[in-house]
Amino acid sequence: MPLRMSRHSGFATTAFASVAHTYSHLFTLLYATVVLSLERDWGMGYAELIALSIPLSVMFGLGALPAGWLGDRWSASGMIAVFFLGTGAASMLTGFATGPAGMLAGLTLIGLFASIYHPVGIPWLVKRAVNRGRALGINGVFGSIGTAGAALVAGLLIDLSGWRAAFLVPGAVCLATGILFLFAMRGGLIVEGAEDAAPTPKPEAGDVKRAFFVLSVTMLCTGLIYQVTSVAMPKIFEERLAGTLGDGIAGIGVLVTVVYAASAVANMIGGELADRYDLKRVYVVLQLVQIPVIVIGFMLVSQALVGVAALMVGINTAAAPAENALLARYTPAKWRGRAFGAKFVLSLGIGAFGVALVPVLHKLFGHLDALFPVLAVLALGAGLAGLSLPGRRARQAAIPLTAPAE
After folding, report:
1. How high does pLDDT run on average in the chain?
2. Residue 404 resides in a domain
3. Distance from CA of residue 372 to its chain's centroid?
């Protein structure tokens, strides 16, 4: 019976953590497609409307630090419950917005509650995983599902019932998931993580400082690339591929979904690479390989852009398992929630200010072509900074032990 309960508990915890990762990305990207409908319904310009989502992106990152601290000091499962219930309620509140002020408030709340997952869920996953790269890769697939599904879900619901349904229906589903999660907690199916399944020897203090400083730079660059791309892609496709799948917003949503669904497999590939090869080398190469792909995307105005966009996003997300594994290697287990909270403050919080480039560039040029050179420069910056990470010596010193950590 204890063994059976343990298996059930592990499955339930993994299932809810995966669903939470999907939701965290889905809810923060619904508005990127909804805004295309509001341009018509509210008679406002794209630049003015998309700017309303900047506080959402900022809170999605800045909220990670207190969320990680509470996950370390209070309860990881308790914070996940707050995530489900708070995100669902905030989304439904946004669906009742009657103007820009209400939309701004609702989106900001979505960002705040959605910020809980990454600094709480990922450290828990790292703690219980034996093959960290593979586990992080699988978890990344579920995040990509949320990113891929956001445009499709929003587009279909808009075409069926209007933009309000794009917030109300997913919000109700998220609330229901939260209630189910509370029952699972009460029934003992959800438990807090134990000691590391794959303990890592303590790295040298100099390597810790050096790694965290370098990763701070690279995580900021990679976060900017991810944030800007995910917010701008629906508009880029509308500008370059209008009418490809009909005149409705759902067609744009399908194209964005195809991009992120196709790139989801990159998380698995990146996870396997992180387990099999030197983390620094994997991380740096993936950053630099993005550059020629971004340049090709800049030049395309045909349907081939969909495939190149999938490759752009795929390479960016493939580097995430190595990045998270590097951060976990140089962070004590008891501080991981706060360390990952700091990471997402950089990559999603401060990085979210890059989202402000979207309305600014669109207003200046009337299109978003200028974003591509910006993305290429950021990828170059991440790759060059990554060269300063501790090298193979640190990797060999950090091979997991067979004995549990003290």
Report:
1. 84
2. no
3. 20
- What SS3 state is found at 56? helix
Q: How many domains does the chain have?
A: 1
Question: Where residue 36 sits, what CATH number does that domain have?
Answer: 1.20.1250.20
CA–CA dist 128, 197 (Å, integer): 5
**pLDDT at position 250:** 81
Q: pLDDT of 112-128, one tens digit each?
A: 999 999 889 887 776 66
What is the C-alpha separation between 15 and 26, in angstroms, rounded?
Answer: 17
Q: In terms of residue numbers, what domain contains 131?
A: 9-188+202-397
**Residue 116: partners with Cβ closer than 8 Å, 6 or more residues away:** 24, 63, 64, 67, 79, 80, 82, 83, 86
Which two tokens mark 327? Answer: 């951060």
Read off the pTM.
0.75
Alpha helices in 241-365 (DSSP H): 249-276, 279-299, 304-318, 320-329, 336-344, 357-365
Q: Smallest Cα–Cα separation from 149: which of 33, 243, 235?
A: 33
43-55 pLDDT tens trace: 999 989 999 998 9
- Calpha distance 337→124 (Å, rounded): 8
Taking the CA of residue 44 as centre, how many other CA atoms within 13 Å lie in the half-sphere pointing to its CB?
16
C-alpha to C-alpha distance for 279 and 105, rounded to whole angstroms: 41
Who's near 2: CB < 8 A, 6+ residues apart?
none
Tokens of 392: 């193979």
| Mean pLDDT, 10 residues at a time, the chain of 406 residues | 50 82 95 92 92 90 88 87 98 97 97 94 70 73 87 92 97 98 88 57 70 87 88 88 74 86 84 88 96 95 91 92 84 74 76 78 89 95 93 46 29
Q: What are phi and psi of 182, to 5 degrees?
A: -60, -40
Q: Has residue 77 been placed in a domain?
A: yes
Query: Please, are residues 245 and 294 in contact by the beta-carbon 8 Å criterion?
Result: no
